[in-house]
Every structure is written in C-alpha cells, then in structure tokens.
Amino acid sequence: MTDKSQNDSTPTTEELREQVEVTREELGQTVEALAGKADVKAQAQQKAAKVKSQVQDKAAHALHRAQDKTPEPVREKAAHAKQHLTETAHVLGEKIEDSTPAPVQARAGQAAELARGNRILLITAGVAALGVMVLVRRSRRN
What we know:
The protein has helices at residues 3-6, 13-38, 40-69, 72-99, 102-117, 119-141. It has 142 residues and is mostly helical.
C-alpha cells in the first residue's frame, strides 16, 4: 500500500485494482492448497506409490545382498533346479491338458474365472472346508 492509504485517505482506483489482483492471487493459491488437501484419493495414491517404491528398493537391495553372499556353485545349482522345475511343470501341464476332455477344460476355465472374481468367497469356502476336515479328524480320533 502507499502512504496515502496509511494516512486514512481514500485509495485510488489503481490502488484498489492492485489490492483486488493481489487478493485474487492469494485466494487462488488458498483454494488450490485446500483442493490438494481435500483430494484424499490422490494423497492415498501418492503415499501408496511412495511406499511401493521404498519396498521395491529395499527388496532389490536385500536380493542383491543375498546374491552377493551366496556362493557361485549354489547359485548355479539353484538356477539349474529352477530351469528343470519349469520344464517339468510345462511338460506335465501339456500332458494334463492333452488327456483332459474339452468339456472338463471348459468347466475348469469357468471355475477359474469365477474364483478370480470372487477371491474372498473362495478363501472363505477354503477355510470352511479346512474347518470341516479338522472336525472330522477329531471326531475319528475320539
């Protein structure tokens, strides 16, 4: 403000325009800051991305440390075992697929899709089945 406004004189039109412009700018910044604080979803996504990045960094670091401490012969043997298991699983999968009738394959595919869509239901059913098995075993022991 100028000396005129400090001396209780009426501000000029230009001074009022400047004050309005400054107030608009401050208001815009305030609204932007409040909007950022109110966007909980964006804040959660930013926090999740940050935590994910930190976990990935720590996991990569731990993996490198473990690899560095593992002797070379052990690493080679593990890599060979992994390759062998992958090949065996692939061969077994092909044999099962070749010997399974098409209608059974179709139903299995439908069941897999249903399971993917209802994981909580599937887990609940699994826990219930496990509970029934435990009760049956206990009753047989007695």
